[in-house]
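Figure 3 (text version): structure tokens given as input.
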């Protein structure tokens, strides 16, 4: 098992290894020794696959367990589901020394993490991500949130987990579309921080080949994010580089009402557009666009997604990197090196409008 130490305001470790799910009890007891009661939050898709193994491991270490299940899908990241979790956690008799366990993908991690951040003004929580996207990205860094009608992740907090347990064996049960969804975030790390990772993914070129190297791939992504988060925990500077492809990508997700297109698909198309925006701004070498496009296609990720102009302008207006009338657009100087480009919102929309006409 590989270990990464994340030295943020609430230090914790990331444990990565096949079979680590069956060691959840031992690992949790080490990380949260004073907890008596644990509420496991999972979804309807993960429940039949991994809940029994996780609960058994935790109970063997003397934890009293409550299991709460939400419907699978983005719609569960809502204020309504959050209130249900709060009420059931309190009915279970949780105290400030108890903890929440998030067992599932990014939706479960965000929702359960936000419940933990706000219950009793903050209780410990453990991330056990079961999708590629959550293992390489959303489970690390302490961003937790729910969606509002106005958009994704607009109500949230920074609340670092007490432990992250990553079992790459969970990826064996993922549908191909969900695996590709996570590959968008893996490719993102190669684009912005690690050209060697980008080149490795290019050489692999398929799910089967990536899975042969999956522990190293997950470790590399978590290590890259760990370094960024430690330097910029509150997302005021360097950490914004992790949003490469997300400004336009969120518009694509919004165009499908967060149902037609997955987060990874939106980010993939968003990275393609961001690379082209970088070329228009004279920052990104033109050949970089083709390199990104070819790698996205290898993992069945879209280069473009239909999006009404009104939806694009709405999403750009809601971007969390906005500061007044300006936005920090993330572009590439070259593969493996991203930079901020602060620009007026109207300037960005003008460039996007030109791209619409092509």
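Below: residues designed for each position.
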């Amino acid at each position: 098992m590989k270990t990464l130490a994340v030295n943020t305001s609430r230090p914790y470790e990331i444990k990565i290894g096949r079979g680590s799910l069956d060691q959840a009890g031992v690992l949790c007891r080490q990380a949260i020794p004073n907890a008596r009661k644990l509420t496991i939050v999972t979804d309807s898709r993960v429940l039949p696959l991994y809940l029994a193994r996780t609960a058994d491991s935790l109970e063997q270490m003397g934890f009293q367990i409550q299991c709460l299940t939400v419907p699978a899908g983005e719609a569960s990241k809502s204020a309504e589901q959050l209130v249900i979790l709060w009420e059931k956690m309190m009915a279970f008799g949780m105290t400030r020394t108890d903890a929440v366990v998030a067992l599932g993908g990014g939706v479960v991690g965000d929702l359960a993490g936000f419940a933990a951040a706000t219950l009793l003004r903050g209780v410990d929580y453990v991330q056990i991500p079961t999708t590629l996207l959550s293992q390489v990205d959303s489970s690390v860094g302490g961003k937790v949130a729910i969606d509002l009608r106005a958009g994704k992740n607009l109500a949230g907090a920074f609340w670092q987990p007490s432990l992250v347990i990553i079992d790459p064996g969970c990826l064996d049960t993922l549908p191909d579309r969900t695996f590709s969804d996570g590959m968008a975030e893996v490719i993102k790390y190669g684009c912005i921080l690690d050209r060697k990772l980008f080149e490795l993914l290019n050489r692999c070129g398929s799910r089967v080949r990536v899975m042969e190297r999956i522990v190293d791939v997950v470790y590399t992504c978590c290590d890259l994010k760990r370094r960024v988060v430690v330097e910029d925990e509150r997302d005021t500077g360097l950490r914004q580089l992790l949003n490469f492809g997300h400004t336009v990508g969120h518009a694509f997700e919004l165009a499908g009402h967060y149902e037609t297109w997955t987060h990874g698909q939106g980010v993939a198309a968003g990275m393609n557009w961001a690379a082209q925006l970088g070329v228009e701004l004279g920052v990104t070498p033109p050949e970089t666009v083709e390199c990104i496009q070819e790698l996205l296609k290898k993992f069945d990720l879209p280069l473009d997604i239909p999006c009404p102009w009104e939806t694009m302008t709405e999403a750009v207006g809601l971007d969390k990197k906005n500061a007044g009338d300006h936005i920090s657009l993330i572009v590439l100087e070259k593969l493996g090196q991203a930079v901020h480009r602060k620009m007026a919102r109207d300037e960005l929309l003008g460039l996007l409008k030109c791209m619409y006409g092509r």
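The longest helix spans residues 214-231.
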